[in-house]
Design a protein that fits this description.
- The structure holds three protein chains of three kinds.
- Chain A is an alpha/beta fold.
- Chain A contains 27 helices and 20 strands.
- Chain A has four domains: 72 residues; 291 residues, 2-enoyl-CoA Hydratase, Chain A, domain 1 (Alpha-Beta Complex); 41 residues, no CATH class; 221 residues, 2-enoyl-CoA Hydratase, Chain A, domain 1 (Alpha-Beta Complex), CATH 3.90.226.10.
- In chain A, a hairpin with a 2-residue loop joins strand 2 and strand 3.
- The longest helix of chain A has 60 residues.
- By secondary structure, chain B is of the alpha+beta class.
- In chain B, helix 4 packs antiparallel against helix 5, helix 7 crosses helix 8 and helix 12 packs antiparallel against helix 13.
- Chain C has two domains: 85 residues, RNA polymerase II/Efflux pump adaptor protein, barrel-sandwich hybrid domain (OB fold (Dihydrolipoamide Acetyltransferase, E2P)); 109 residues, OB fold (Dihydrolipoamide Acetyltransferase, E2P) (Beta Barrel).
- The longest helix of chain C is centred in the C-terminal third of the chain and has 14 residues.
- The chains are: A alpha/beta, B alpha+beta, C alpha+beta.
- Chains A and B meet through helix 16 and helix 18 of A and helix 4, helix 6 and helix 7 of B.
């Protein structure tokens, strides 16, 4: 038999195996048909019973194509998940070879790399204008799945791999070249070794929030935090057969089905979750979390789909050009160029637009990117603020901005100068006075009568009752946990190690503030405890309580659960935002409450967080994120939740860069998305004793890495040793410590640069 | 609850061990009140276990894991249906949280001791000092609130030094102590103001680490003094506190633990003092009663005083519990000429809600009482505790002698290593100081106490120390 | 040198140890469904993080506490007549017949071969701070003891006195003392291995490792 026929048979067999894999037992008839036809053809060809095998195989190829197109119409979200996970799926190296004209891998090569699952390359694209060739450089960064090669770890990037990515983003920034990132990851490798999975992703997101070069992202497999680590881009494209999700459908099924470690969810439940999570490119385009869908061949792109690579190249050029043009001021030229770009028949290889940006253009680029993310997901939560409130707020914003500028920037500066002058004059006067009176004073001292009076004074001072006011005197809590009413004892979890005796509930939850009096273990307390005991009594003013958590994906049965949480906690979302005072220092606080659906963050929580940061910036107050507990992003909100990671980080970054002091305090358990973004990016993070901080819980780590996790793996003191947090505080001292932090980290009278 | 039933309807949990547990049980027995005792594995041979078996009724003895575990006491009290709890001294006697738990739990009981609020108020040394000052009761010169500021601390220390120099004290000393501390921890002396700051910082850091509070107290360190006590008794009304005289507890071990207690506090009839001793005694009694009345003190308690060589008293602290040495005050007291005074029985009676039934005019004192604490220890070697077995322990019975001990006299007894090696209390009475001293020495001479340690060494005790110190009783 | 074979034979003759599980404190007992004759397990997992078989719960002050098997073996006796009763501290609740594990046999062997430094009297013992730091940082075997060295702090009757080591110079091979519990007089505190015997002891340990199959 002809070797070329042999090759084509082999290719068809691979296509068939691929179809079998991605549909996982579905569409058996179609598969049987194809198998049958391929088999008979093969037998006949081997027997030499065919005149022209080339024609006949062409017929079978057509049949394959026909069936594939038909199956394409019935493709489900879970099929797409199987497509992106398939070893035959295109990977980043294929893209580098076929989309770019040349490239050099940097930061390691193949398995000899700090982290082979993170691939970084300097690539070039050659474009022609007339006869002239222009070679344009980009930094390509992305996860490499390597068609299932073991050392690539399936594109699951370790913390240091993400650190490497950030490092080369900075290089690109220095060099002024655009960045193309390609997301091929099921999620980050959830280990806490330095720098820590969550901590590094947070740094990446924070870093990307103001990268001063264009960033274009393509999402194939966008698994939650791992995706966001390189996903905060000016343009986000998504492959038509990719998925972008908060969690793997299996993970969601495990949570939905309340499975214990080791148990497996049924395929039906997984399929159901995949559909409910709205993870496809079309869904995300509708939500606005991606800008464009890149159409793939039927049943997804594989390495031999060269047309697809050509198309992807055009899309990448167009996206990059658009980003660059959008920063230009000259609107006439811009409009013409944009119109040309958008013509469907244009070949962008024959067009040349310079990718370098002026300094002002870079600032506009960053501002546009930040605004883009701040705008996202606004409609995914229920905003019950009355229309009038919203309008008046917007109006007062406009009015207050110049006022605040006047008050804080101009007036304060001048007042400080005045104060310095007055001080100087004062010192001079004192000096003068002391010279003037010194002879008299010496005389007074010599008189004997005075001494006796002084002695009397002393004994009075040492023996009589002194006045005593201040915080230390007040040893009473403003709020005590209702659990104090139950007459029972509680065993400290450390009892076997430290020999703690059982604690009496009424003591533990009232006077002891939930702290074991033997070993100092901290039992979780209610969010109210902090609101009432950390801040000045009566100083708490809540705002935006009308922004409510909803069910934007219409996830089955979820609306009821949200309502139930609202009923039991009395809160409308898992994030409470308020203004308060600590010893008369005003602060804006965003509190994630572990009691409201595990403190998970969805669109409402994100929106409130963003508005709190903006309020703090406007009022020039310090901004405190108190994390009573957070289990991560609310999975039932899908990408509406995930998008809060870059979104809130952008808000935080804008606040910090406008001169704000942003502090984070973790309590109980803080995990996943929020820690890996807007919480973990704070330069000043603290934890309450006995709290746990991390990226993924022990169960998830066991499932994704196969590793057993030692007890106390996520304890805050380990985060402290790793440099993630700055200190561990005892609960009764939180108030004092926050005050001390505000005084030492913040400025003299404003805590605001 | 107490109004509804007579005290004989009560059942008292004896939440202590050893000698005091036995005295509580006997007092209950005398009053016709049922009781329940507890013991630990290490204490199985203690006399209090045997006594409970002998005179206790149903459900009168339980083995628990520890005397320190409040949960054990509550569980036993519930199972034995106790209605009240006597903490004795040590353990939970001055733990206001424990007292609060006893009285506030679902199955409420009577805590035989002052109400928990009083224990809390007087258990806090700053609070006590401030209360005293508000009533113009003299306290040790120095700060009466925690000092957090280094500059202020140094200013106070400087004043305390200057004050002492003015008083003619040659080597003034300043005490720096953690305000949240207790039991001798986090205390340091300063003899030179230049050293003050480094000591201050050390104590402050220690306090921060240990007690999570940086507050520090600065006081004069008084070196030359006598340790006096005033015994206060008041019923639940808290309106008519009476006193049972004074005690002098100046003979102590190097670790400042009492070894000999004498009642009354001074004896101007037998000895001469450089100050008006009777006036000092009257003053401290009056001051103590003033404070007791102010807080509505509602059980037995002791006001501890230091009296300097020039006769100035300073309030040291208030012990809101029955003390080891209560017997020596009872021994010299007469209530309406009745010499059989038992302060423990009085404590239980008024604790359970009975009115005191007499007033200060009904109380008189007669003679001198001495209490010796017999302890297996080595006074020549910093009072190091001795451990081993007691083989022989007996004494000659006398009408003027009373011995309280949990050590069995008819069998070998191994001293448990988890507690202080206290063996017995001997209370001696004499019509005057001279007679009491003579009887004391003769008791010690007749006492037979032998034993062996695990390595075969003979028992060490403080008998010689007690005998040698009998001479200087009540001398300043 | 010590006869390892003889010791192993001796243990093999009666390879069981009876473990009496007693009530750690007072409370009301409720037994679980485990029956006498059944196999029970001790704590398991890499860090012993999985608790042993639940035998009973002991409820005191509305706080039910699990009574767990501490070693694996066969549940010989269960004092079922105590069901629902209020028991005193130290009351026996169950007896587990436990087959000696390799580590235990090894410890037996070590107790007979090492120089044991014993407690002079019943007290709590803990290492002096410097030694403790060293033991925590790099293991007990990094500490070499010699005659007269201040090794322990002996705590009894609220007093703390230093305890000086007496015996041959060598490394601390095993630590027997538990700092939280009282040690009786005569009980070993540490086992010291003189340097010249180190190889012999390691060989003996190897022998147990190969001959004794039962693992924890």
């Amino acid at each position: 038999m002809d070797t070329s026929v042999e090759k084509r048979i082999h290719t068809l067999r691979e296509r068939l195996a691929y179809i079998e894999d991605i549909f996982a037992g579905k569409h058996g008839e179609d598969i049987d048909l194809l198998q049958d036809r391929l088999k008979t053809f093969e037998e006949r060809a081997r027997a030499g019973a065919m005149g022209d095998p080339h024609t006949e195989i062409g017929g079978i190829e057509d049949l394959f194509g026909f069936v594939e197109r038909r199956l394409e119409d019935n493709i489900t979200p879970m099929d797409k998940v199987r497509i992106v996970r398939h070893p035959q799926r295109i990977c980043l190296r294929d893209i580098l070879e076929n989309v770019y004209d040349n490239f050099t891998e940097v930061g390691g090569q193949d398995e000899h790399s700090l982290d082979p699952s993170m691939l970084i390359a300097r690539a070039v694209i050659a474009r022609r204008r007339g006869k002239k060739m222009h070679v344009q450089s980009v930094m390509v960064i992305g996860q490499e799945k390597g068609h299932g090669a073991d050392f690539r770890n399936g594109g699951s990037v370790k913390p240091w791999g993400n650190a490497k990515a950030l490092q080369y983003m900075r290089v690109a920034e220095t060099e002024g070249i655009p960045i193309h990132t390609y997301i091929f990851t099921p999620g980050s490798y959830p280990i806490e070794d330095y720098p820590g999975a969550a901590q590094q992703i947070a740094r990446n997101i924070y870093g990307m929030a103001n990268l001063r070069v264009p960033v274009v992202t393509v999402i194939s497999e966008g698994g939650s935090g791992g995706a966001e680590a390189i996903g905060l881009a000016d343009k986000r494209l998504m492959l038509s057969h990719g998925y972008y999700s908060v969690i793997s459908p299996e993970g969601a099924a495990a949570i939905e089905g309340r499975l214990k470690a080791g148990e497996r969810a049924t395929p039906e439940l997984i399929e159901h979750c995949a559909t409910s999570l709205s993870i496809t490119a079309q869904d995300n385009l509708k939500f606005g979390y991606i800008d464009r869908v890149v159409q793939e061949p039927p049943l997804g792109a594989r390495p031999n789909h060269f047309d697809f690579f050509r198309q992807l190249r055009q899309e990448m050029l167009r996206a990059t050009d658009e980003v660059v043009l959008s920063t230009r001021r000259l609107s006439f030229y811009k409009r013409i160029a944009l119109r040309r770009l958008r013509r469907p028949d244009v070949n962008l290889d024959d067009l040349y637009i310079r990718w370098g940006l002026s300094s002002q253009a870079k600032s506009r680029l960053v501002e546009k990117r930040q605004q883009k993310f701040l705008r996202l997901s606004r409609s995914a939560c229920r905003d019950r603020r009355p229309f009038f409130t919203k309008v008046s707020q917007a109006f007062s914003d406009v009015l207050m901005r110049p006022y605040n500028h006047l008050k804080y920037d101009l007036y304060r500066r001048h007042r400080r100068k005045m104060a310095a002058m007055v001080e100087e004059i004062d010192t001079e006067w004192e000096l003068f006075k002391s010279r003037l009176f010194s002879p008299f004073r010496a005389l007074c001292k010599a008189l004997p009568g005075n001494r006796g009076a002084a002695a009397e004074d002393k004994s009075a001072e040492l023996m009589a009752l002194s006045t005593w006011t201040g915080d230390a005197r007040r040893r009473k809590w403003n709020y005590i946990s209702p659990r104090y009413k139950i007459d029972r004892t509680i065993t400290c979890p450390n009892a076997t190690t430290y020999g703690c005796l059982d604690l009496w509930g009424p003591d533990l939850f009232a006077e002891f503030a939930g702290v074991c009096s033997y070993c100092g273990y901290h039992f979780p307390m209610e969010p109210e405890w902090y609101v009432r005991n950390v801040f000045d009594e009566g100083s708490v003013y809540e705002f935006n309580s009308e922004i409510e958590a909803g069910n934007p994906l219409h996830f089955p049965n979820f609306s009821d659960r949200v309502e139930k949480a609202q009923k039991t906690t009395g809160a409308k979302s898992g994030c409470m935002t308020f203004e308060a005072r600590i010893d008369n220092i005003k602060v804006v606080v965003a509190m994630l409450m572990g009691t409201f659906r595990g403190g998970s963050v969805g669109a409402a929580e994100g929106q409130k967080f963003v508005e709190a940061a903006e309020r703090a910036a406007k009022k020039r107050y310090p901004f405190l994120a108190y994390v009573h507990g957070t289990a991560g992003i609310r999975i039932q909100e899908g990408t509406h939740g995930v998008i809060q990671m870059p979104r809130c980080t952008v808000a935080v970054r804008r606040y910090i860069e406008s001169g704000g002091l942003y502090m984070v305090l973790y309590d109980t358990n803080s995990f996943a998305g929020p820690v890996a973004s807007f919480l973990g990016c704070s330069p000043y993070q603290f934890a309450v004793r006995s709290s746990n901080i991390g990226f993924a819980g022990p169960g998830v780590i066991k499932e994704t890495t196969g590793m057993d996790i030692p007890p106390k793996y996520h304890r805050s003191y380990r985060a402290l040793s790793r440099g993630h947090i700055q200190a561990i505080w005892d609960r009764p001292q939180i108030r004092g410590n926050i005050k001390q932090a505000l005084l030492t980290i913040g400025g003299r009278n404003l805590y605001y640069r | 609850m107490s109004q509804d039933f007579a005290i004989t309807d009560h059942k008292v949990l004896v939440a202590n061990r050893g000698e005091i547990a036995m005295r509580i049980m006997r007092a209950c027995h005398k009053l016709g009140v049922a009781f329940t005792a507890i013991y630990t594995a290490a204490d199985a041979a203690s006399g209090h276990v045997r006594l409970a078996q002998e005179i206790g009724g149903e459900k009168s003895l339980y083995r628990v894991s520890s005397y320190h575990d409040a949960n054990e006491l509550m569980a036993v009290a519930d199972d034995a249906l106790c209605t009240a709890l006597h903490p004795g001294y040590g353990f939970f006697a001055e733990d206001y949280r424990f007292a609060r738990r006893v009285t506030k739990r679902e199955r409420r009981m009577i805590f035989i001791g002052p109400s928990w609020k009083i224990i809390r108020e007087l258990g806090d040394k700053i609070n006590t000092k401030r209360l005293a000052r508000s009533l113009e009761v003299p306290t040790v010169p120095g700060s009466d609130r925690p000092v957090y500021d280094e500059m202020e601390a140094e200013r106070i220390a400087r004043t305390v030094f200057e004050f002492q120099l003015q008083q003619g004290i040659k080597h003034p000393l300043v005490l720096v102590k953690a305000s949240a501390g207790g039991g001798g921890m986090g205390i340091e002396e300063v003899y030179d103001i230049d050293n003050f700051r480094s000591v201050y910082r050390r104590i402050r850091n220690y306090a921060m680490r240990q007690f999570k509070d940086e507050g520090v107290l600065i006081e004069q360190r008084i070196t030359d003094f006598n340790h006096l006590e005033v015994q206060i008794v008041s019923d639940r009304s808290g309106k008519q506190p009476v006193h049972f005289g004074t005690r002098n507890c100046s003979i102590q071990s190097t670790g400042l633990q009492k070894r000999v207690e004498v009642a009354p506090g001074f004896s101007s009839r037998d000895l001469s003092y450089s100050f008006d001793a009777d006036k000092v005694l009257d003053d401290i009694v009056a001051y103590s009663l003033t404070m007791a009345r102010k807080v509505g003190y509602d059980n037995v308690g002791t006001w501890e005083w230091i009296v300097t060589r020039d006769g100035s008293p300073f309030l040291m602290e208030v012990n809101t519990r029955i003390q080891v040495e209560n017997g020596v005050s009872a021994r010299i007291s007469r209530v309406r000429d009745n010499a059989d005074v038992d302060l423990l029985a009085e404590q239980i009676r008024i604790g359970l809600g009975e009115p005191l039934g007499y007033s200060q005019e009904d109380i008189a004192t007669e003679g001198v009482g001495i209490e010796y604490r017999l302890i297996a220890e080595d006074p020549d070697n910093r009072f190091t505790p001795w451990s081993g077995s007691i083989e022989q322990f007996h004494w000659k019975e006398q009408p003027w002698l009373k011995v309280h001990t949990h050590v069995p006299t008819d069998m070998v007894y191994e001293i448990p290593s988890d507690f202080d090696p206290n063996l017995a209390l001997a209370i001696i009475w004499g019509k005057d100081l001279e007679e009491a001293r003579q009887r004391g020495v003769s008791f010690l001479d007749d006492l037979c106490l032998t034993g062996k340690s695990a390595t075969g060494e003979p028992l060490k005790s403080n008998i010689n120390f007690l005998r040698a110190n009998t001479e200087r009783i009540l001398r300043f | 040198m010590f006869d390892v074979k003889a010791l192993l034979d001796e243990i093999k003759a009666s390879p069981f140890r009876k473990i009496i599980i007693t009530a750690p404190h007072t409370g009301r007992v409720n037994f679980t469904s485990v029956q006498p004759g059944e196999r029970v397990t001790g704590p398991q997992g890499l860090w012993k993080e999985k608790p042993g078989t639940l035998l009973a719960t002991l409820d005191r002050e509305r706080n039910p506490k699990p009574i767990l098997a501490l070693e694996k073996g066969e549940l010989e006796t269960l004092y079922l007549d105590l069901e629902g009763c209020f028991v005193e501290a130290g009351t026996p609740l169950a007896v587990v017949r436990h087959y000696m594990t390799r580590t235990e046999v090894q410890n037996e062997l070590l107790k007979k071969t090492l120089h044991l430094f014993t407690a002079p009297e019943r007290a709590k013992y803990y290492f002096t701070p410097e030694i403790d730091k060293k033991v925590r940082a790099s293991g007990s075997q990094s500490v070499t003891v010699h005659e007269g060295m201040e090794l322990f702090i002996m705590s009894r009757m609220k007093r703390e006195v230093p305890l000086h080591y007496a015996g041959p110079t060598g490394a601390i091979y095993t630590v027997y003392v538990e700092p939280s519990a009282s040690t009786d007089a005569g009980q070993p505190l540490i086992g010291v291995c003189p340097p010249d015997q180190l190889t012999a002891i390691q060989e003996a340990v190897m022998q147990v490792q190969t001959e004794w199959k039962e693992e924890a």
